[in-house]
């Protein structure tokens, strides 16, 4: 039953993690309600699971990595709900709920590590992992290109370049309007974020099957990937909540892009994640 | 039938003369009908804009005095018109009309209004019943030439008026202007014009403020705008995407700190300030703030001037295009003019065929329906094959304006003299296409010729 309640909690955390983004980024009341209710239910089942787990074992300390992960997830979710209750800080949810889901996800797979039924199934998961992350990288690439074009166009308009003038800036008269570039940069980020999240979740499923287990997450490549995911969330959060746009948003996108390059570069130093040797 | 264009324009006549002969929209149908009643004028239309008044006619004699009509109509002394008037005939007239429609003869080369004005004049003349196939053919060709010039050159791609430059810049910032809010601060002709341009491009809400409430209300009326008390200017400014300001204030009414406060309220959504006032209403330092774009009257004028210079170089390419279209028009016209001759040739051959069938009927005896159809098909086929070379020769001679060859062909086949040169009277389409029901589809053949 411990595992059953934990799995129910994991599913509910996943739903709450999805709902929290429109709730926070677009200030949608209905989504806020969905996120809180799903998250609350998830926390309840998670709490039941943890209590049952510890009561069954007749001890008050978790044993093993999976139990520890489950307990850590419960603490993170509990803290978030406490903040929300005290300060109405719903925006923290875009970090807390997905992180809780990530932490709970692997223990919810089973007491023992999950083993794929066949090589074909494992390869399918691997392909999905690669495709999702490539889509996220491509979207981020488009976002940075649109941001760069935004900076160029903004400079042109502000410097009041005359048509036909020979200062080299006339060659970029084809640039789209600022508003269009801003929307492209934002839309590509919105598209890339779920791709990256899904890619990382699938990666977590793949890695728990290896002998490395939790040690895998200490690898520079894997750490950099999660840092990139967090940067992505920050970027989306600032864009939507703080009205960050234009030049500052372009620079921030550039920073996230640099993190992405670092993730790629980390493949050279990674002991556990290499292209062709997942 | 020949074309004649007579008129005055911004290059040949001063404004004082142009406004004396300008024809209002309400008077235009009546004046057009009066022109059509002039002896020798078969078809006509009049283009009357602030920059030109032109009488465009199809006449059946070269003796028509259009300047006399102009003098009589407006009670002008002919001496007053001399030196200011121009008259073009035939190919020159066609070229002139094509250039006018393509906006190559406009004060601002490439402006798009003239094509609409010519179309409107044509529609008025059509409604007045003064347009027939000749002018219809000419004007349709002029419209397609203008369309070609606009689509194949960049002559119309750059706006030139201050108002349209403002719209163009707003588009560079906001993309679509659909639903954008425009705030008019102070009342001025130019800011009103800019606002009108923005509304035409889809701008949604118009806010108007002025120190004088009455003036603000007057200005807001045509846009269904909302009047804002002047003391609430800063409260509402943040709602506007575009602010057009033209007050008589001796100092800046929008300063950097205002701009930053607006941006904060708008969560950094950009704002565009169009400052038409002299002295300026907007502190130029505001342009340094990210998200604020400030253009004053000098900036707008410089962009407009640069566009005009660009257009002059593009116009050279457009002139070549128009020349090609004029030539094509004349070629088509000459080909169409030979249509009556071709119809006569076909009719003559058909009569011969029918006569021969009647003559041989007694020797053939009674034929079954299939046999009669076979004889019919055989004779018709032979006739068409024999007619093909002379018909091609006639069309070729017409295209090359070779009157000698045309006459020789007409003489060879005992046809009426075609006079199919450019000065020839073209047979109306409906007449040229009228043939006996038994004739071998001359309509199809002439229309093919006409399309070449």
TrEMBL record, chain A:
Looking up InterPro entries in the UniProt record yields: Cyt_c_assembly, Cyt_c_biogenesis_CcsA/CcmC
Locate the transmembrane regions by residue number: 6-25, 37-58, 70-87, 94-111, 123-152, 184-207, 222-238, 250-269
User: In which domain of life is the source organism classified?
Assistant: Bacteria
Q: What is its main location?
A: membrane
Please state the span of the N-terminal signal peptide per the UniProt entry: none
GO CC list: plasma membrane
Which Pfam family, just one, is annotated for this protein?
Answer: Cytochrom_C_asm
**What protein name does the entry list?**
Cytochrome c biogenesis protein
Which organism does this record belong to? Occallatibacter riparius
Give the lineage.
Bacteria, Pseudomonadati, Acidobacteriota, Terriglobia, Terriglobales
TrEMBL record, chain B:
Q: Which UniProt keywords apply?
A: NADP, Oxidoreductase, Porphyrin biosynthesis
The active site lies at 50
* Domain Tetrapyrrole biosynthesis glutamyl-tRNA reductase dimerisation as annotated: residue spans: 318-413
| Top-level division of the source organism's lineage | Bacteria
The pathway noted for it is: Porphyrin-containing compound metabolism; protoporphyrin-IX biosynthesis; 5-aminolevulinate from L-glutamyl-tRNA(Glu): step 1/2
- Region of interest (Disordered), residue spans: 415-452
Single Gene Ontology MF annotation? NADP binding
- Catalyzes what? (S)-4-amino-5-oxopentanoate + tRNA(Glu) + NADP(+) = L-glutamyl-tRNA(Glu) + NADPH + H(+)
Q: Quinate/shikimate 5-dehydrogenase/glutamyl-tRNA reductase domain: which residues?
A: 168-303
* Glutamyl-tRNA reductase N-terminal domain segment(s): 6-153
- Does the keyword section mention Oxidoreductase? yes
Q: Which residues bind substrate?
A: 49-52, 106, 111-113, 117
Per UniProt, NADP(+) binds at: 186-191
Q: Which family does it belong to?
A: Belongs to the glutamyl-tRNA reductase family.
What this protein is reported to do is described as: Catalyzes the NADPH-dependent reduction of glutamyl-tRNA(Glu) to glutamate 1-semialdehyde (GSA).
Q: Which NCBIfam families match?
A: hemA
How would you summarize the oligomeric state and partners of this protein? Homodimer.
Listed name of the protein: Glutamyl-tRNA reductase
Report the source organism.
Occallatibacter riparius
């Amino acid at each position: 039953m411990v595992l059953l309640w934990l799995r129910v909690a994991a599913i509910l955390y996943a739903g709450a993690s999805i709902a929290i983004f429109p709730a926070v980024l677009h200030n949608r009341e209905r989504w806020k309600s969905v996120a809180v209710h799903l998250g609350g239910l998830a926390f309840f089942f998670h709490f039941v699971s943890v209590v049952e787990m510890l009561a069954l074992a007749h001890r008050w300390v978790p044993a093993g990595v999976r139990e520890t992960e489950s307990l850590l997830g419960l603490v993170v979710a509990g803290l978030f709900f406490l903040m929300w209750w005290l300060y109405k800080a719903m925006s923290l949810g875009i970090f807390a709920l997905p992180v809780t889901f990530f932490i709970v996800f692997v223990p919810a797979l089973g007491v023992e590590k999950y083993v794929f039924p066949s090589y074909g199934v494992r390869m399918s998961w691997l392909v999905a992992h690669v495709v999702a992350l490539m889509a996220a990288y491509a979207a981020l690439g488009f976002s940075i290109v649109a941001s760069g074009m935004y900076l160029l166009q903004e400079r042109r308009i502000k410097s009041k370049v005359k048509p036909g003038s020979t200062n080299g800036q006339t060659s970029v008269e084809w640039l789209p309007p600022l508003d269009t570039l801003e929307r492209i940069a934002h839309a590509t980020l919105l598209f890339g974020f779920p791709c990256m999240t899904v890619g990382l979740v699938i990666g977590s499923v793949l890695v728990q099957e290896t002998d490395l287990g939790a040690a895998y997450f200490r690898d520079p490549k894997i750490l950099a990937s999660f840092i990139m995911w967090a940067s992505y969330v920050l970027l989306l959060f600032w864009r939507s909540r703080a009205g960050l746009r234009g030049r500052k948003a372009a620079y921030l996108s550039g920073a996230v892009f640099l993190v992405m390059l670092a993730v790629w570069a980390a493949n050279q130093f990674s002991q556990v994640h290499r292209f062709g040797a997942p | 039938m020949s074309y004649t264009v007579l008129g005055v324009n911004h290059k040949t006549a001063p404004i004082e003369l142009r406004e004396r002969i300008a024809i209002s929209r309400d008077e235009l149908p009546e004046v057009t009908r009066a022109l059509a009643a002039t002896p020798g004028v078969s078809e006509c239309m009049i283009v009357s804009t602030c920059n030109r008044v032109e009488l465009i006619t199809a006449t059946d004699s070269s003796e028509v005095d259009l300047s006399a009509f102009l003098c009589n109509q407006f009670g002008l002394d002919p001496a007053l018109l001399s030196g200011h008037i121009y008259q073009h005939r035939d190919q020159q007239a066609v070229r002139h009309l094509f250039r006018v429609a393509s906006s190559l003869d406009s004060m601002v080369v490439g402006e798009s209004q003239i094509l609409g004005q010519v179309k409107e004049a044509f529609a008025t003349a059509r409604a007045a019943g003064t347009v027939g196939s000749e002018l219809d053919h000419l004007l349709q060709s002029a419209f397609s030439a203008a369309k070609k010039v606009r689509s194949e050159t960049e002559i119309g791609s750059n706006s030139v008026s201050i108002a349209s430059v403002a719209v163009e810049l707003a588009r560079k910032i906001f993309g679509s202007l659909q639903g954008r809010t425009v705030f008019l601060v102070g009342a001025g002709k130019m800011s009103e014009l800019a606002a009108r341009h923005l509304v035409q491009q889809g701008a949604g809400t118009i806010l108007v403020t002025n120190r004088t409430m009455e003036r603000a209300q007057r200005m807001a009326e045509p846009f269904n705008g909302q009047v804002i008390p002047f003391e609430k200017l800063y409260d509402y400014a943040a709602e506007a995407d575009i602010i057009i300001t033209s007050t008589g204030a001796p100092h800046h009414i929008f300063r950097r700190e205002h701009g930053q406060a607006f941006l904060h309220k708008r969560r950094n959504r950009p704002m565009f300030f169009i400052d038409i006032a002299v002295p300026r209403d907007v502190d130029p330092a505001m342009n340094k703030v990210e998200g604020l774009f400030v253009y004053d009257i000098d900036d707008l004028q410089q962009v407009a001037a640069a566009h005009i210079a660009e257009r002059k170089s593009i116009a050279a390419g457009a002139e070549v295009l128009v020349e090609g279209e004029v030539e094509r028009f004349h070629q088509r016209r000459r080909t169409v003019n030979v249509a009556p001759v071709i119809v006569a040739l076909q009719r003559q051959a058909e009569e011969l065929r029918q006569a021969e069938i009647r003559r041989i009927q007694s020797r053939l005896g009674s034929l079954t329906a299939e046999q009669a159809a076979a004889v019919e098909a055989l004779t018709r086929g032979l006739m068409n094959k024999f007619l093909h070379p002379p018909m091609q020769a006639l069309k070729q001679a017409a295209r090359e304006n070779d009157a000698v060859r045309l006459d020789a062909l007409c003489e060879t086949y005992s046809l009426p003299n075609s006079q199919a040169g450019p000065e020839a009277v073209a047979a109306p389409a409906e007449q040229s296409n009228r043939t006996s029901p038994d004739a071998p589809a001359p309509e199809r053949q002439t229309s093919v010729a006409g399309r070449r």
